[in-house]
Amino acid sequence: MKNTVLAGILGFFVIGIFYATGFNKRGLEYFIALTVASVILNAISPVLGIIVNVAGAYFGYKIAEEYNQDKKLEEYHE
To answer: What is the pLDDT of residue 16?
Structure first.
């Protein structure tokens, strides 16, 4: 069982996506996408970078919640 609050907090700092997904393909995809988006948006305006952090927190929480409810569990074992 994964702690959804911890996943959300860590997700704010992008690395929490890995905690939520268990270091698998899905987590790597989210990590790369959020990192690229963060670099691009921070180059435009640091305030826009916060959007990526909020998205990471949301995804971290959502994925950990799905994991705990055994939804799409096969995605977590790739």
So the answer is: 60
Chain Cα centroid distance, residue 75: 15
Rounded distance, CA 23 to CA 66, Å?
Answer: 15
Q: Model confidence over 8-21: pLDDT tens digits?
A: 788 777 666 666 66
**Other beta carbons within 10 Å of 10:** 21
Which 3 state secondary structure label does DSSP give 15?
coil
* pTM (2 d.p.): 0.68
Pick from 10, 2, 14: nearest CA to 53:
14
Six-digit token string for 44: 């435009």
CB count in 10 Å sphere of residue 9? 15
